[in-house]
Design a protein that fits this description.
By secondary structure, the protein is mainly alpha-helical. It has helices spanning 2-34, 40-67, 74-85, 95-106, 111-137, 146-154, 156-168, 174-183, 195-223, 231-247, 257-269, 276-308. The chain is globular, with a radius of gyration of 20 Å. It starts with a helix and ends with a helix.
């Protein structure tokens, strides 16, 4: 049985690496066609900030496990998260979470706690991203799109109110998630998070979005000078693109959807001339992929060091 599982894991890894390599080469080819000159220093710093953001992400996730009364070491959770991250590039949206749950169980984490922690992590991450986008809408930087202007007037306040309500009532998340888990015949979850912890976790993810946003702002500066006053708006662009890309179940890794949303929103600024919005979307996808591969590769080093102890 162990041999069969090892073979399946190897096949899954090969398939995932195939998709990642394919995405990377497609985006690299598109990037070369744009013939864009970039500032290596800004792009390099952007990559470093991205790596820092991934580490912060694991620290926040570890805090969620503590809230759920389960302690797991940083290095163990680091390996679990980034070994399973490659699953996001497989068709379907459940591979990464399924991989995380499987690897966490191998580290001694009960399935129910693992399911709760990883699903809540995705929910809070998306809620934080939408919140930042709604706030950025209120700044009026997206005036180039009438649809966005309408959203600013009628939807931002409502969306923020709904997200605040969900944060204050985290138990409401339990019912719809359990319906899905019952369909797949998995252990149902029990969301036992008080209001203080719920608000704290959401704020942590908002901070995380701002770190990712800083990396995005630095990357954009690597292509064209951008004032710091656009930092919040660019963070909102990135948050909206990633969140919608994640919700697009038909797009592995949000490929195409994330870039499309990013180009649409950047074009509405009126600041970026063609082909800069496309170059920013494609180029930052490449840098993001590189950062993910670095973190994925580092897990193998950590696992190798752990086995030698």
């Amino acid at each position: 049985m162990k041999t069969i599982i090892s073979i399946l894991k190897f096949i899954t890894l090969i398939i995932a690496l195939f998709f990642i390599t394919n995405y990377f080469l497609i985006n690299w080819h598109r990037w070369k066609l744009l013939n864009i000159v970039f500032n290596v220093r800004y792009v390099g710093i952007s990559l470093i900030v991205l790596l820092f953001a991934w580490i912060v992400n694991v620290l926040i996730l570890r805090q969620q496990f503590k809230v759920l009364s389960k302690r797991i070491s940083f290095l163990e959770l680091f390996a679990v998260y980034f070994l399973s991250m490659i699953g996001r590039y497989l068709p379907g949206k459940f591979w990464q979470i399924a991989g995380s749950i499987y690897l966490a169980k191998k580290k001694g984490v009960p399935e129910g706690i693992a399911i709760t922690a990883f699903i809540l992590a995705q929910i809070y991450f998306i809620l934080g991203g939408i919140a930042i986008f709604c706030v950025s809408l209120l700044r009026g930087e997206f005036s180039g799109l009438k649809l966005i202007t309408s959203l600013t007037k009628y939807s931002s306040g409502l969306a923020l109110a709904i997200m605040l309500f969900l944060t204050l009532k985290p138990k409401l998340i339990e019912y719809p998630v359990n319906l899905i888990l019952k369909i797949f015949k998995r252990e149902i979850i029990a969301v036992r998070i008080n209001i203080i912890n719920s608000i704290s976790i959401l704020l942590f993810y908002v901070i995380l979005w701002f770190i990712f946003g800083l990396a995005f702002w630095l990357f954009v500066n690597g292509l064209t000078p951008v004032p710091f006053r656009l930092y919040l708006s660019l963070t909102g662009v990135f948050a909206a693109a990633v969140s919608i890309g994640f919700l697009a179940v038909f797009a592995p890794g949000g490929l195409g959807v994330r870039e499309g949303i990013m180009v649409l929103l950047l074009t509405s600024f009126g600041t970026f001339e063609t082909p800069l919005p496309v170059a920013i979307a494609v180029g930052f996808r490449i840098v993001m992929t590189i950062s993910e591969l670095i973190m994925f590769g580092s897990t193998w080093v950590i696992e190798w060091i752990s086995k030698r102890r």
